[in-house]
């Protein structure tokens, strides 16, 4: 079986050094001061990386290698794995931004997921098949390689075709906020369709928030033919409305050439977005998730923005699925932080 690697992007935005670095580059005259692109929730970590790592070790033991891409930080996932999964032999490697931005160091530091994603394929030793996880994505049931790639090696993508002109109309009708229109996840996909041109100007694949199976050679060939697009997309330190989503570019291109498999979200992918104003809705979604035995993948969008009871309920559910008491771990981590502050 051809190896499958996992790539996870992560940052601890509460780290004082990272905070100071971020503040230094805000308002640098490149149109990057929009509140939403530098909102604290984009960088705040409340333990999601450990949910993600634990879920892979628990439910995808066939994985060849796990890479965590970060900015001069280390979540010490190897220690976590040794404590809770001593039988696992999956290597975990921390990859610094400087490694994937080699020869482009002038573009660093960056605080922009789209810029970082543009460079992920440059991880040294990365296998041809790799699955991309944001740190807010985790597995909630056993998976096999066939959940990500079919027998022919084609990626299996959760998503659907979206009409390009409809997306353009929605973007045009969107009311300005703070003097400009918000740049959304879908907008980055629309930009990818514009880059591809041709049939993509009529339709593109609307990706679901889930793990994304990718192919390293595609990005190597694409950026080899279009080096100017690599630099243009990776140069923004904070999200910019001109950027395209690299994964969307890959998926829409393959779908237009019948080289990937599209599947509906169905019951397989769970999406939770806890917010204080959505107490009832999120509670209902969580109850559905608890009894959903068909689910394999879950995305928890901005857990830090949830009300305390929402966070507790979701973390408890994750702990039950993964067999780890994450609530006790959070309390343990808090006691350690308080002791360090008193010292």
From TrEMBL:
Protein name, as recorded: Stealth CR1 domain-containing protein
PANTHER family: GLYCOSYLTRANSFERASE (PTHR47452:SF2), PUTATIVE-RELATED (PTHR47452)
Stored Pfam families: Stealth_CR1, Stealth_CR2
Top-level taxon of the source organism: Bacteria
Species annotation: Candidatus Tidjanibacter faecipullorum
GO MF, any single term: transferase activity, transferring phosphorus-containing groups
Domain Stealth protein CR2 conserved region: residue ranges: 42-154
Chain ranges of the Stealth protein CR1 conserved region domain: 2-29
